[in-house]
Write a structure and sequence with these properties.
Elements: E1 3-6, E2 36-37, E3 39-42, E4 49-53, E5 56-59, E6 71-80, E7 98-100, E8 106-108, E9 120-128, E10 131-136, E11 139-142, E12 158-162, E13 165-169, E14 174-178, E15 183-186, E16 192-193, E17 202-204, E18 207-208, E19 215-217, E20 228-232, E21 242-247, E22 253-256, E23 270-273, E24 281-285, E25 288-292, E26 302-303, E27 311-312, E28 325-326, E29 340-347, E30 350-355, E31 359-363, E32 371-376, E33 387-389, E34 395-398, E35 404-407, E36 415-416, H1 423-427, E37 434-441, E38 446-453, E39 461-465, E40 470-474, E41 483-488, E42 499-503, E43 508-512, E44 524-544, E45 551-558, H2 561-564, E46 570-575, E47 587-599, E48 604-613, H3 616-622
Length: 626
């Protein structure tokens, strides 16, 4: 006798920690799936919680900064159109064509551009190949002194907006973008003190070949591939002088990437390693710029004076609660006991410090003493921007030992979100070969977890659906779309409140709920519904959204549920948009699933199956091969 059953969408997402037979939930909206990709619970095109393909990607900017060079940094600042932004206006001071930089230098920017009083302007800056430029939906715009301004060898460069300007640190130099002057400027302690730095190593060279590229000889140099070096004083082959990224390292030699010989080497020359001589982590907290990641002092944390990113005087003649502080000099916090891997501001009074195996919490103004307390010694935080914050103040982060956590910094301890679902997947991530980035997505109320191999290979990324408390994996068909930097914009226009991904191919793309592809590449999605055992499926009735694309259904059956996940589909059919006519497959599932798959956008309202239990004799007849 036929019995109708509703095949529930797995609103609780992917679950790889339970037994295969326990994928089903006992209540509506509590089902999980053993296998899926590129699907979500909430339909991105309508916001309905019904099961759908994920949103696609479109190009935000048609141009690239440095050809096919990967994106290194994406950062923005938001300001009033009459308060230091690049837009000039009749009410600006100074008026019309002139702007004064943060260093007090007047610059002419062109005729005035009218604007609406109170409007906000979003300035988006990208870094690629060490070059800086403005990113707009119309194209890339040059920044004065933006060429070769930062290290081309770092996979990721971190930056933060502070008031109207944007400040960068790449481990080799400090720069800031003056939005009022459209100018990249060397960032130094021009008010007082010394900006955090270490003495760069200087070595004597004994040779430089007249070849392409130039091969430099320095006995037992101790340098590493990708290091940035500055060479000066070479006599003869003076083409070796300059700042270079190095490659093809041997004990006593290295190549200068992009160089070409200029004559026979005669004598002299010094090699200065600049990589690691500056901080590489940056945050804004309590009205200060916070720096860390200094290679020879990795436990230290440095903070500028309140409101002045150019004041790094830790011992002024008159001590104040607003002065600059450093962990080893004036801060009540002291140095961090663990190597610093992440700076996570929460409120003006609370900042989390991620380490290689711990998390600590800074409380209070560091210039007034402050305290440094332990949050956990069980896990640290992956390096860089492997964290994000929801509007409710919840911090999400990727642990230094794998897994994704959430924490309320005020009174909580880390809660491992992946522990009972996909923990094995994320425990195996090689953090030394991947850039991990977390970003909050306002539109879908979710956390997006990007795991991008620096080699450019394939990867799987993840979405944590906060409303459904579900994990959804997603992949890009084109590996070059995997981002090195991700930003959620803020601004007045809808386009300025979007999530942007800076790909390994140098393009900035926008997460687009209306896109049917990933910038021209197909989005292939699937989900396994079940498990089902010893059932004869006699009827299928489906209702898809009215705007849905076609969806292919199939039976995946085998002698075990585990094998069924890799079994070839059987009894294949197709659903189309709207309410479908009943289909009569009469297919036997020994142990397996009903698989739904599609290319492009789709969403499902309901799927019902007519099933019959079969006798043990018929089960043996219809049983699958192993």
């Amino acid at each position: 006798m036929q019995k109708p059953i509703e095949l529930q969408w797995p609103f609780k997402g992917l679950n790889e920690s339970q037994a295969y037979v326990r994928q089903r939930g006992g209540q509506p909206d509590s089902y999980t799936t053993a296998k899926c990709n590129n699907v979500v619970g909430f339909d991105p095109r309508t916001g309905r919680n019904r099961g759908a393909a994920r949103a696609g990607l479109t190009k935000y900017c048609p141009d690239r900064i440095d050809g096919a060079s990967a994106g290194q940094c994406l950062v923005y600042s938001v300001g009033s159109v009459f308060n230091g932004t690049r837009v000039t206006g009749d009410q600006s001071v100074p008026p019309s064509e002139t702007r004064v930089t943060a260093l007090g230098v007047a610059r002419v920017l062109g005729a005035a551009t009218p604007g609406t009083v109170g409007a906000r302007a979003t300035t988006l800056v990208g870094i690629s190949g060490g070059n800086a430029a403005l990113i707009t939906s119309a194209g890339v715009q040059d920044i004065d002194s933006g060429s070769d301004v930062l290290s081309p060898s770092r996979s990721v460069i971190f930056a933060e907006a502070f008031f109207d300007n944007i400040y960068f640190c790449d481990g080799a130099s400090y720069k800031y973008y003056d939005t009022g002057a459209n100018l990249m400027v060397t960032w130094d302690a021009t008010t007082a003190g010394s900006i955090p730095a270490q003495a760069a190593s200087v070595q004597l060279m004994t040779g430089a070949t007249n070849t392409t590229p130039i091969v430099v000889t320095v006995n037992s140099h101790g340098l590493s591939p990708g290091d940035l070096v500055t060479i000066t004083g070479v006599v003869g082959n003076d083409a070796a002088n300059g700042t270079w990224t190095i490659a093809n390292i041997t004990l006593n030699t290295f190549e200068l990437v992009g160089s070409g010989g200029g004559g026979a080497y005669v004598s002299d020359g010094t090699v200065t390693r600049v990589s690691g001589s500056r901080c590489s982590l940056i945050a804004v907290w309590g009205g200060r710029i916070v720096l860390s990641g200094l290679e020879t002092d990795p436990n230290n944390i440095f903070m500028s004076a309140v409101g002045d990113p150019f004041d790094w005087d830790y011992s002024p003649a008159a001590q104040t609660v607003q002065q600059a502080v450093a962990g080893n000099i004036t801060s009540g916090y002291g140095k961090n006991a663990d190597i610093v891997t992440a700076l996570i501001p929460y409120t003006d009074d609370v900042m989390l410090i991620g380490g290689t195996h711990s998390i600590r919490k800074f409380l209070g103004n560091p210039a007034e003493g402050g305290i440094n307390v332990s949050v956990t010694d069980i896990t640290g935080v992956a390096y860089g921007r492997a964290w994000c914050q929801s509007p409710e103040g919840v911090i999400y982060f990727f642990g230094s030992r794998g897994g994704v956590y959430k924490i309320d910094p005020e009174n909580g301890i880390p809660n491992r979100l992946t522990a009972l679902t996909i923990d094995e997947r994320l425990a195996d991530v090689d953090l030394s070969a991947s850039v991990v980035t977390l970003e909050w997505d306002d539109r879908s109320l979710s956390v997006r977890v990007y795991i991008t191999p620096t080699s450019g290979g394939p990867t799987t990324n993840y979405v944590w659906d906060v409303r459904n408390e579900a994990w959804w994996p997603f992949t890009y068909a084109n590996n070059s779309h995997n981002p090195m930097s991700v930003r959620l914009l803020s601004g007045d226009a809808a386009a300025d409140r979007s999530l942007l991904e800076y790909g390994q191919d140098g393009y900035v793309r926008i997460l687009d709920e209306d896109a049917s592809t990933d910038d021209g590449d197909p989005i292939d999605s699937f989900v396994y519904l079940g498990p089902l055992s010893n059932m004869l499926i006699t009827e299928l009735q489906a209702t898809l959204s009215e705007q849905s694309g076609d969806v292919t259904w199939s039976f995946c059956t085998a002698s075990s549920l585990e094998r069924a996940l890799t079994a070839s589909p059987r009894a294949v059919g197709r659903f189309s948009s709207g309410r479908n006519a009943n289909q009569w497959p009469r297919g036997f599932i020994e142990h397996g699933y009903i698989r739904l798959s599609a290319t492009g956008p789709w969403a499902i309202e309901m799927l019902t199956a007519g099933v019959e239990r079969v006798s043990e004799t018929m089960q043996r007849v219809m049983r699958s091969t192993p």
